[in-house]
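Hi team,

Below is the intake form for Histidine triad nucleotide-binding protein from Sphingomonas edaphi. Please confirm the fields before the structure is written into the shared record.

FORM ID: S-0412
PROTEIN: Histidine triad nucleotide-binding protein
ORGANISM: Sphingomonas edaphi
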Amino acid sequence: MPIDAKAPYDPANIFARIIRGELPNRTVLETEHSLAFHDINPLAPIHVLVIPKGNYVSWDDFTEKASEAEITDFVRAVGQVARMTGADAQGYRLLSNVGKRGGQEVPHLHVHVFGGQPLGPMLAR
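The structure came back. Fields below:
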């Protein structure tokens, strides 16, 4: 169910629980400010989620409140994941859903890294 990206951060969300170690994940990369792990329901051969460790609901929230160090670390982590998984070899897609109309389902900023196959059109009609 899509969420309101302007709502306050919910520390009980699934990604917050993963960061705290309450739920398992298949980690691809962990840095000081970011965590990347395989999606539990992959939509492509390569499907990794990259999340900041801070309490940010969306891109808007993150770019307004995160430190320069957090922003730099997160953006670099996304690129590093693409290289580590081999997604960069043939091309890949980054996707971050924001808010209800964007289809955001978890109230924690995350970027999907998709690759390993042709990914089709930008938007489904």
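SUMMARY LINE: The helical segments are 14-19, 59-65, 68-85, 99-102.

Thanks, M.
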